[in-house]
Every structure is written in C-alpha cells, then in structure tokens.
C-alpha cells in the first residue's frame, strides 16, 4: 500500500499504516534527499546514485497475506484525509495497493537507505552496512528500517538530536516519549545520558525500538515499554524528550512538569511552524522557561527547562 503525501505528514501517515498492521514501511521523501549536500558532512555516498523523488513523499507499507487489505483500505484513506483536522497537509493523500512477493519487499527499500551524518557528532546508518566513523568524535547509530518508524534523518529527529547535544552533560536520567524507532534514546546514550526509559503507545513501535536498541550495545540498558505519554509515571528525571505532533505535546506539558526535577529540560520537536505559538504558550503557562527555539525548514524544536528555586 502506497500513500502520496507531503513532507510534513510523513510521520503521521507512517504511523497510520503501521497501526493498521503493516510489517514495515519505506519512506521516499524528497526533503530527505534535499538535505544531503555534497561535501557537507563528508563524501559518505555518491549522491547521484541514490534514487529519489523530486517533490513530496511516498510512504509504502507492506502487509502480510493474513491482513485483508480491501477491508482496511477505506479506514486508512479516511484517517489520511482526517490529518487536515490536526493541521497537517497530507495532499494529495492518494492511497494505492499492489501485490508483491516477500523477496521483492525485503530488498526494495534498502536502495533508499544509506549512512547519513545527521548532526556534527551523529551518523545514522542501516544495520547491514559496515560503516566506520570518518572523523574524531563521530558516533554511529545503527537502525533496522525493516521495522521503520523513521530512519532518524527527518528534520524533527534532527532537531531533537541537536537539542540533546546542546543540553546533555552526562549522567542524566531521561524519558523518551513516543520513542518510535528508539533513535533518540540511542543518541542520548551515546552522549552520556545514564538511565533512559522509552515509551510509546504503539506496541509495534516498542518492538521496533527494542530491535534497534539491541543493534547498539551502548543502549542495551534502555528500557522500552508501552505507555500513553507519561500517564501513571511519577518518578522525576533530568530530561523529558518528545518528538511527536504538537497536538499531542499539549497534554504532555503538565505530565512533563510533574516528572522533571528542578532545572530539568523538556525537549520537544515534531512542531510544524504554525503550531509553535500554542506549544510555547502552553509550556510558559505551566511554568517552563523557554531557552531556545530550533528551526529546520517548516519544523520547530523547543528547548525549555523547569526552573529551580533560585529562578
């Protein structure tokens, strides 16, 4: 099943397909290719050899024979159409289906996925490539996109990683809310965060995160489990990280406040530009101090902290 959509709706559409029972998702996003600039992060691959779209995005999901696709197709079309209600432009939002054999799917998406230097210190690479760091201080995150909840190269994920690099000093405790692929937990461990618990509402995402955590020995002690945001969690930590839609960040704000130590950081991303004001206002109303707002294309990330008694 394939959905033609926009860059801003990629993660939301991917989640819709996964929640409907997809075994894996391939994302072909023109914006991802646009971020690969020759020489910017070193010549990892020959950019001219990478097949890519020139505009928009196509998300392709694989469903096993046990799923009766005609039955779920109307629901998926409706959910993609309903994204407009959440302020996401998913046009054209066309959904098509095609029968493929297992072998074709197993290799189809691999040609789209290559090592990418996503920040100064972090490179994301597929699990099957034998990639070695090319610069001092470069850390490598290995992901299995066969369980794709994003490859770690989307602007919202880049903003989250950059925010982590700006605030992490080592030894912190952290909640990763809406972990998806687990990439932010892995990145945080590489930066020196000590104790991490990763949550996701979707059981498929939790399994995906566990698969990727196992691929990265540094993250072997990260705990990944299902949970709705921070509902029922009452143990303060130093960091709360959430790369999710702005509408979902809003109910998380009071939960993050309760679960942060004084001086602790609340890092949020997944915020489309016109939703930034509502997110910032909700955080400031709660009592958070906004330290920085990060920007990449149409996306925004917010670095905020819970004030100490001296503040």
From TrEMBL:
Subcellular locations according to the entry: Cytoplasm
Residues annotated to bind S-adenosyl-L-methionine: 157, 178, 200, 243
Catalytic activity: L-lysyl-[protein] + 3 S-adenosyl-L-methionine = N(6),N(6),N(6)-trimethyl-L-lysyl-[protein] + 3 S-adenosyl-L-homocysteine + 3 H(+)
Pfam families registered for this protein in UniProt: PrmA
EC number: 2.1.1.-
Major subcellular site: cytoplasm
Record CDD domains: AdoMet_MTases (cd02440)
Role noted for this protein: Methylates ribosomal protein L11.
Protein family: Belongs to the methyltransferase superfamily. PrmA family.
Transmembrane regions: none
Positions in coiled-coil regions: none
GO biological process: methylation
InterPro entries per record: Ribosomal_L11_MeTrfase_PrmA, Ribosomal_PrmA_MeTrfase, SAM-dependent_MTases_sf
Species lineage: Bacteria, Bacillati, Bacillota, Bacilli, Lactobacillales
Protein name: Ribosomal protein L11 methyltransferase
Primary gene name: prmA
């Amino acid at each position: 099943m394939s959905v033609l959509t926009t860059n801003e709706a990629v993660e939301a559409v991917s989640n819709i397909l996964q929640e409907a029972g997809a075994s894996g998702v391939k994302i072909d996003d023109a914006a991802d290719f646009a971020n690969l600039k020759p020489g910017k992060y070193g010549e990892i691959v020959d950019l001219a050899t990478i097949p890519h779209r020139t505009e928009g995005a196509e998300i392709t999901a694989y469903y096993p024979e046990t799923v009766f696709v005609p039955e779920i197709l109307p629901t998926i079309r409706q959910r993609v159409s309903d994204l407009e209600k959440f302020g996401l432009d998913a046009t054209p939002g066309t959904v098509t289906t095609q029968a493929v054999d297992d072998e074709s799917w197993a290799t189809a998406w691999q040609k789209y996925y290559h090592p990418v230097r996503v920040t100064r210190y972090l490179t994301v690479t597929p699990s099957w490539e034998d990639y070695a760091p090319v610069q001092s201080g470069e850390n490598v995150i290995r992901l299995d996109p066969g369980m794709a909840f994003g490859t770690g190269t989307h602007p919202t994920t880049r903003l989250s990683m950059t925010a982590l690099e700006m605030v992490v000093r080592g030894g912190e405790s952290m909640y990763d809310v809406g972990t998806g692929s687990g990439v932010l937990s892995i990145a945080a461990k590489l930066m020196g965060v000590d104790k991490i618990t990763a949550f996701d509402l979707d059981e498929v995402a939790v399994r995906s995160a566990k698969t990727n955590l196992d691929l990265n020995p540094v993250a072997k002690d990260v705990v990944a489990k299902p949970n709705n945001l921070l509902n029922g969690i009452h143990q303060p930590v130093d960091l709360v990280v959430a790369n999710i839609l702005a509408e979902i960040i809003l109910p998380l704000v009071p939960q993050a406040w309760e679960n942060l130590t004084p001086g602790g950081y609340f890092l949020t991303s997944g915020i489309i530009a016109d939703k930034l004001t509502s997110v910032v206002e909700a955080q400031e109303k709660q009592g958070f101090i906004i330290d920085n707002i990060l920007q990449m294309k149409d996306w925004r990330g917010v670095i905020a902290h819970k004030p100490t008694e001296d503040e």
